[in-house]
């Protein structure tokens, strides 16, 4: 199947965000992670198109073809909200790594995503900072200062809500949390905790795919499509 995209770039708060659209039907949004890009999730597109969905993907600010050299959670959240307004309502959304946090932030800002899939998700903002500071050999004093700065940028309520996980209290009906047991970037136990605080969550663990190669596994792509299809079938019977 030849994947032909239509560009659907948009302006969000003064910045042009590169975005692409494939197919027709209920909309499925793809959200990449930190240092990723929209096409990183392209192996998921073909099964979704065959199943009759429209797929939307984008490059976050400072990533891929979107200009800039920095971004943050609430900026990507606002892109998700803008894309939903332009192409919604969303039937499902699939996030990878940091993209999962951005989707959760969009939901908690009022966006409805009936079917939410999170892949290789870090357990919370506090864990992200801890892991980053360990990798960079940052001192505890500097780490505390970084936490304070991020809390001020995001706002204390959002920081406190997402410090340990990404809880969702509304806007999602079913969720699928996926992680590889041999992920060397984010321990799979963080997704296990995430599944405990997402509505009607199913936890799917793989083995041997790692943090990024998990996105290229065709069997997993088919399972994600089947999960979304199952929701569509149930809705059609109601």
On the 0-100 scale, what is the average pLDDT? 91
Range of strand content? 15-25%
List how many beta strands DSSP finds. Answer: 10
Question: Which architecture name of the largest domain does CATH use?
Answer: 3-Layer(aba) Sandwich
Shape field = globular
Q: How many individual domains?
A: 2
- Give the neighbour order of strands across the main sheet: 1-4-6-5-7-8-9-10
What proportion of the residues is helical, as a percent range?
25-40%
Task: From the structure above, extract its key features.
alpha/beta, globular, about 240 residues, 8 helices, 8-stranded mixed beta sheet, 2 domains, two-stranded antiparallel ribbon, Rossmann fold
Précis, in short:
With 238 residues, the chain is of the alpha/beta class. It has helices at 45-50, 73-87, 98-108, 125-135, 140-154, 156-162, 189-196, 218-237, and strands spanning 6-7, 10-12, 15-17, 19-22, 27-31, 54-58, 90-96, 115-119, 174-180, 201-206.
Structural description of this entry:
With 238 residues, the chain is of the alpha/beta class. The protein has two domains: 6-122 and 167-233, Rossmann fold (3-Layer(aba) Sandwich); 125-164, no CATH class. The chain is built from eight helices and ten strands. It has helices spanning 45-50, 73-87, 98-108, 125-135, 140-154, 156-162, 189-196, 218-237; strands spanning 6-7, 10-12, 15-17, 19-22, 27-31, 54-58, 90-96, 115-119, 174-180, 201-206. Strands 1-4-6-5-7-8-9-10 form an eight-stranded mixed β-sheet, with helices on both faces. Strands 2-3 form a two-stranded antiparallel sheet. Helix 3 links the parallel strand 7 (90-96) and strand 8 (115-119). The longest helix has 20 residues, at 218-237. The radius of gyration is 17 Å and the shape is globular. The two termini are 32 Å apart.
